[in-house]
Give the backbone structure.
Amino acid sequence: SACIACLLVREDAALFVAGIGLYFCTSRKTRWFGVVVVCISLIYLAVMLKIVMPFFRTSGPPIHIAAGWFETFGETPEKIVANIFNNPTGFARHILHPYKSINYLMLLAPFGFVAIMAPRVLLILVPSMGFLAMSSAYTHTSYLLYYVSPALVVIVWATALGVVWLSRWLTSLKASTAQRFSRLFPATRERIAFALFIVTGK
């Protein structure tokens, strides 16, 4: 029901919901549910862009108002996929443009980059952020604008899980360090106390 409510917000929210589906796909128990969520999200997006929105457009061409910003690699999904495969380095330069890369980092920086400790959760952002990264308008990936606002929810969640992981890692590191230290210095407190008694007579 939460995914359905999310789909009703905006047409591009379908990409965010598809990311949630990818998250479920990473677990064997929920894999098929994740596949269903991804398929429904993509079908919903196609229906909205190709049928519903053009139906209510009374003037102008029957294309999305922002379509011009996403034509760098082609005007149709087939052309986009073909051009990406034919020019992967150009695609990488496009989505990793310095301005875009800085904004990716600015999304993670306020949380100390701890979110990267939960890559399974960050997988949710791949469809939506990947789509925004394909835009020729740098503002679509700006951390100051609303386009990336759904990403903050995921980053906060990933940060919370990352903090738990770091806490467990530091605890295990502390325990292993103490164990190694005891192996290097096997003298117990009783032996140290006995040595002090011999030296000081107390």
The mean pLDDT is 82.
